[in-house]
């Protein structure tokens, strides 16, 4: 059962979640013409009554960019104002996932992004562990990640998640926890809603932003952490067989955090993962605000300095 937060933001105001309903004729529902974000909101252990967000400025920028790709002008400060209002309207001490969605709110038919009204809605849902942090099994999906020339994959565009949904369900039906999608060139792209990393010969490797991936905020943060720790990192294409031979493989995302992969198809991966463990420890310490050098990555709300 989903535990939704009591208040939502819809059509310019905060209302009860149960009353936050839209018409069956909503344009975005039919055409996938929407862009969304996803942030974890964690109660602050340092400032009682306030909550922490991880690198919110990057999330605001990505949502603004995603909306822009659909022709909707939504500035970062507009989104920030609404999110701040939403957080204030939902006080509590449980962590949750905050979901803003910029969508074509017009009623009626004809797929288009011009002459159509947009709206931004926000809701929240309590969230625990998304994937087992002990490690998961992955299959190679029979679905191919879309191409950026077919749809703007740099944005979190709702329509593109049809591929993610099909891949995830196929993986579960085959007895796996997650799917790894290849791109149209046959190179490794990402998971259903997470980026992918591998370690080969001690080097941390992840597909480049031109491999039809989503430019994940966790991905970027991990590359920064690894570089600071003196680890060699490379953004390059990854072949399917390299993942099977890798010393370590992990998936990253706001919901998934850093999730180790322990098996791919019928191949078991090593169960010692020194690099994953080190990066994961640093990532957790950053979230717990234990590392002063990363203090800018955590912003507390309410806050005056964003
Ligand atoms: N790829 C896809 C398709 C996603 O939906 C997500 C989740 N937003 C990610 C990767 C990981 O991105 P992030 O680290 O910004 O959550």
Mean pLDDT: 96
Approximate strand percentage = 25-35%
Structural class: alpha+beta
- Envelope shape: globular
The first-to-last residue Cα distance is 34 Å
Number of helices: 7
Give me the CATH superfamily of the largest domain. Answer: D-amino Acid Aminotransferase, subunit A, domain 2
Q: Tell me how many strands there are.
A: 17
- Taken in chain order, the helices and strands follow as EEHEEEHHEEEHEEEEHEHEEEHE
Text of the CATH class of the largest domain: Alpha Beta
Q: How would you classify the quaternary structure?
A: single chain
The name of the CATH architecture of the largest domain is Alpha-Beta Barrel
Ligand inventory reads: 4'-deoxy-4'-aminopyridoxal-5'-phosphate
CATH topology of the largest domain: D-amino Acid Aminotransferase, Chain A, domain 2
Biggest beta-sheet profile: 9 strands, mixed
- Supply Rg: 19 Å
The low-pLDDT segments are none
Number of domains: 2
């Amino acid at each position: 059962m989903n535990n939704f937060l009591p208040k939502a933001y819809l059509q310019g105001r905060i209302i009860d979640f149960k009353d936050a309903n839209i018409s069956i004729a909503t344009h975005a529902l039919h055409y996938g013409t929407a862009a969304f974000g996803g942030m974890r909101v964690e109660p602050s252990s340092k400032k009682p009554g306030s909550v922490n967000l991880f690198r919110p400025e990057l999330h605001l920028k990505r949502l603004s960019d995603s909306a822009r790709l659909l022709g909707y002008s939504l500035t970062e400060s507009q989104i920030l104002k609404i999110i701040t209002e939403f957080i204030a309207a939902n006080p509590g001490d449980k962590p949750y996932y905050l979901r803003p969605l910029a969508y074509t709110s017009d009623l009626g038919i004809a797929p288009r992004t011009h002459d159509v009204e947009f709206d931004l809605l926000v809701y929240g849902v309590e969230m625990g562990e998304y994937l087992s942090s002990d490690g998961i099994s992955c299959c190679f999906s029979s679905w191919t990640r879309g191409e950026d020339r077919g749809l703007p994959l740099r944005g979190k565009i709702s329509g593109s998640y049809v591929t993610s949904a099909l891949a995830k369900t196929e993986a579960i039906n085959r007895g796996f926890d997650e799917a790894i999608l290849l791109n149209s060139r046959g190179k490794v792209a990402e998971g259903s809603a997470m980026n992918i990393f591998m370690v080969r010969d001690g080097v941390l490797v992840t597909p480049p932003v031109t491999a039809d991936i989503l430019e994940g905020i966790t991905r970027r943060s991990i590359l920064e952490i690894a570089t600071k720790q003196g680890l060699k990192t490379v953004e390059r294409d990854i072949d399917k067989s390299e993942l099977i031979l890798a010393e370590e493989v992990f998936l990253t995302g706001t919901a998934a955090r850093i999730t180790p992969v322990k098996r791919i198809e019928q191949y078991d991966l090593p169960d010692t993962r020194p690099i994953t463990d080190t990066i994961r420890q640093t990532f957790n310490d950053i979230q717990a605000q234990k590392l002063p050098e990363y203090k800018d990555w955590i912003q507390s709300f309410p806050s005056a300095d964003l």
